[in-house]
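Box S1 | Example of a co-folding query
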Amino acid sequence: MNTPSLLILAGDGIGPEVMDEVKRIITWYGKKRDMEFDVTEDLVGGVAYDKHGTPLTDETMAKAQEVDAVLLGAVGGPAYDDLDFSVKPERGLLRLRKEMDLFSNLRPAKCFDALADFSSLKKEVVAGLDIMIVRELTSGVYFGEPRGIFDLPNGEREGINTQRYTTSEIRRVARSAFELARKRSNKVCSMEKANVMESGVLWREEVTWVHENEYPDVELSHMYADAGAMQLVRWPKQFDVIVTDNLFGDLLSDTAAMLTGSLGMLPSASLGVPMENGRPKAMYEPVHGSAPDITGQGKANPIACILSFAMALRYSFNDGAEADRLEAAVEKVLADGARTADLLGPEDGTPISTTEMGDAILAALDASL
Ligand code: IPM
Ligand code: MG
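Box S1 (continued) | Returned holo structure for magnesium ion
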């Protein structure tokens, strides 16, 4: 196979800072593991808008379609709050997801032992937690038509978004959840609001159909999404894989993230259908946002972005052993006490910088050889 190609879109806010650390890790793999990547960089989000008047140019979109994997930092910031909806930084991200057809968004929430004390929940509730949220990413209320703000004859205005799902959209994301479950603890919990929404009724029926016809060996349960949110903070270890729609997945994954202590820890993978070379269309990004309040201060935690690259090794480059190596290096530095500011309480001593966290992980990688 040719040298695998990566498109880096560092984006806005802390995106470039955390991505700098990922670039060092990529270089390390080239030098020490003989794994070369063909890396290109480009703009997305506010920085793309500043330069081109759009959060994602057609040229960048075309490049994203051609590479083996896209690595994205973060998009958005207060400078862009008043922009028209169509050119907001977030539209760049949504366009990538939609046009690459990245329907399956994997958001693991794993509590590192060293951080179990740091969660806002009791230690026994989160210690050893390892769940995977599979969020549908290309449909639902994020993309449904009609949408817009309309003038009514009586002088009022009306805002409309449409929640819609089709059979095939539900079945394909359900399959990806069942496939993952088979490699984990073999349990899927599907979440929707079938008690109030027709799209939720269809969701439940189609997930059940896929289960009965294709994955009867996997344990399947259903929950209303509000009850699911409650169960996630009550006893999260009851879950293995959770599969849910685009909007509920957005909310539930932020909730799950906080179980682990910090949003600065959580990676994600967005996967589509296989390309000609057999690799899935793919984009990897941290779950956290652009964090304008700490941008440019060396405070950002690069771990979510680094673990996103580990997911790329696992899901795009089929190298579970190297993904394990990188994840173990992160676990090691946390166990040794390395903490960026987001991982420390007010009385907990001095944090290390973004670059120092990168240094520590590189040293742990060296030590793993
Ligand atoms: C996420 C984010 C995005 C979303 C925003 C930035 C558009 O919150 O990836 O969870 O709502 O999907
Ligand atoms: Mg979100």
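The chain has a mean pLDDT of 96. The CA atoms of residues 121 and 278 lie 41 Å apart.
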